[in-house]
Amino acid sequence: MRVPYEWLREYCAPDITLAEVEQLLTISGTKVEAIHHHGVTGLESFVVGRVLTCEQHPDADRLRVCTVDVGGDEPSQIVCGAPNVAAGQTVGVARPGAVMPDGTKLKKAKLRGVESNGMILAEDEVGIGQDHAGIMELETEAPNGSPLAAVIPISTDVIEFEITPNRPDCLGIYGIARELHAATGAELRPEPWAEDPGTGGKLAGLEVDVQSPDLCPRFTARVFEDVTIAASPRWLKARLMAAGLRPINNVVDITNYVMLLTGQPLHAFDLDKVAGGRLVVRNARDGERIETLDGETRTLDGEMVVIEDADGPTSIAGIMGGARSEISPATTRVALEVATWIGHNIKRTSNRLALRSEASGRFEKGLAPEQALWAQAVATKLLVELTGARVAPGTLDAGPFAVQPWPEQTIVLREQRVSAILGMEIPTERQRALLQALGFTVEQSDAGLAVTVPGFRRNDVTREADLIEEVARFELDGLPATLPKRRGAGGRLSTAQQLRRRAVDVLVGRGAYEAVGWSFTDAALGDRLRLAQDDPRRDTVVLANPMSEEHSELRSTLLGSLLDVARLNAARGTSDLVLCEQGAVYQRGDAELPHEHRALGALAHGHLHQPTWTIAEPTTADFFTAKALLGAVLDTLRIEWSVRRTDEPFLHPGRAAEVLVGDDVIGWVGELHPLVCAEWDLGAAAAFEIDLDRAVASAVAVPHYADVSVFPPVRRDLALTVDRSVTAGDLVEVVRASGGALLADAGVFDVYEGAQVGEGKKSIALRLVFQALDRTLADADVDPAIAKIVKQASDRLGAQQRV
């Protein structure tokens, strides 16, 4: 919101600099986004002048050569192209050296051979309007050469605020002035709606029927006769221009001016164009169409609200008026509508129609019904003063709020509660003064201060903690640093949290960089990962109001975000890296709420280390890289795990496995499919992903002591010939299951395929370690165990011992 500082100071003018105003308001929660300057600079070069003579330019039909008294010893000669310039006029003059609103510095010039020492100004040339058809004629008795800024508002600072959604009262300049009053203690002028030239009672000439009371709590209207449509006075146009609005005519400008002042939008109807003299507030019909003031025809649905007359819809409620009843130069009778609309409905309508306006931006945040008559009072005064209008007796006031005003809420603020929450004492009188400055009504009670919440803060302040916040935000400089009360909390990580952190730490310790990706992804991720249409990971949660098309669904796997980070790094020259991430993933499922669990994933891309003089081409990431990272995690958590060959559409065929804990599949590991890598413009990569919650549930959080044998182990090598389809993992599993209590370890150290083992066969060499806790083993202890291993391998896998 843009607020001209000169306008703000009309209601609260503290004796401090603009920089101090910015700091105080920002600290107290009314954030100043920027300070702009509107209009011209170098004000000493802009003066009042009087046109003494005006002659035709000798070489140009559209130019006049004027002599202008600007207060010096000699009049200035100025060449002017305005058709309305004439001798005897009092005008605004820019001398050479003046800086115009667009930053151009004015210089002496020759126009068609005639010297020109300045410029006679039009409205747009000083930023107080858009009229460039002719020069401004001033009505002032200021002497020639007087500063132009003392006659018309040609220069002002503009404060741009970032107003939070819970403070729609600060979308009006008087609301900002109230904040400034509380922050500085400077006097706050009375509310501009304190005096109302209008009257209550029945209004003749206009009827209103509110058929959607759940969406329109209050609808007020007044009628104005003998209205003269004309340009607004320059002070009004200057304020609108500085605030970022375009002047149109006096009636429309008044509605915009009052909206900026009070925060309450208004709409003016040409009453002679309201068919039947009756307005109806109702829900639109599906497919109903209306032409709005911007010239567009829009199609409505049944959840939107319209205002209609006897000929159909004439306005989209709370967003934009219709072209059929707009104010025109021929308008003489005006119906001024000031209504309250339910915020969430206005927000939905605005989004569906892709139509935002100054009005919708205010209504969607939730305005108070009380504000309607405030705006009516200010607008009535201005319409009478600036258009010569005669206000008709009576005020139409319809809707549920008009029948039964919403009750006020009173909250008790306890002094001891304030000190307990803030960690410091704030005197009761200081609390009272701050709350009263903000518009609250405060009375003393036995329990503390009885604070009545004003209507314009009804949706924001609902409990004692909110009142404490109102007090605290003006005392931030004095708040001490204190620890919150523990209330018995130990403050330690839970066992599950410790194990999750340990899992990430072990990956970081092996060179992985921890990434934090979006929980959102795009709808095309399933296709890019080559998932089948019936794959459960396609059963995603679609967001109702996504930030963008690329973030329209909740992710069902970490792989997409890991690939996004890898691509980003590779595009910037970092192709050799290992990434890891833990985070929530989601699936819709059949339950009312989506299934959510915490997953852990890692991705390795590029070379595993830098080239050296001994290894010119380092190893690149492959299946065993990902498996080693997975093993580091699961072994650190002391989980008994295994892998089993599987087929995942996003993994390389034959280089993919599922991860098992017992018989429970908790994830996958493998090299990524080349087509998937190509989707992210990456080379070969390997990854794993596990359900971290299930892994943690299987972890041994507290290890148990086991005796270490003091007797030497017996090592034996065993080579078994098996079919090529038998995996080494299957063979090791059989060996460990049949080796008995003396078998301490078993592992593969060689695999051979060739003529010596036969077609379709391979030889797997195992290193077996036998050890006992109570004795040194002899061959008589080990040979039976090896014989049993060979027999079980033969029976279950068809293995034959090589000799």
Describe, in plain words, how this protein is organized in 3D.
The model has no long low-confidence stretch (mean pLDDT 93). This protein has 20 helices and 39 strands. The chain has 803 residues and is α+β, with helices and mostly antiparallel strands. The longest helix is centred in the C-terminal third of the chain and has 19 residues, at 779-797. The N and C termini lie far apart (88 Å).
Spell out the blueprint of helices and strands:
Layout: E1 2-4, H1 5-9, H2 18-27, E2 31-39, E3 46-56, E4 64-69, E5 76-80, E6 90-94, E7 109-111, E8 114-116, E9 119-120, E10 155-162, H3 173-184, E11 207-210, E12 218-225, H4 234-243, H5 250-262, E13 267-270, E14 278-283, E15 289-291, E16 297-299, E17 305-309, E18 312-316, E19 320-321, E20 334-340, H6 343-353, H7 358-363, H8 371-387, E21 390-391, E22 396-398, H9 400-403, E23 409-413, H10 415-422, H11 428-437, E24 441-444, E25 449-453, H12 464-472, H13 495-509, E26 513-514, E27 520-521, H14 525-528, E28 541-542, E29 553-554, H15 559-571, E30 577-587, E31 595-605, H16 623-636, E32 642-645, E33 651-661, E34 664-672, H17 674-679, E35 685-691, H18 692-698, E36 714-723, H19 728-738, E37 743-752, E38 761-770, H20 779-797, E39 800-801
Parallel strand pairs: 11-14, 26-30
Antiparallel strand pairs: 1-10, 2-10, 3-4, 3-6, 4-5, 6-9, 7-8, 12-20, 12-21, 12-22, 13-20, 14-17, 15-16, 17-18, 18-19, 23-25, 24-25, 27-29, 28-29, 30-31, 31-35, 32-33, 33-34, 34-35, 36-38, 36-39, 37-38
Helix pairs in contact: 3-11, 4-5, 5-8, 13-16, 19-20
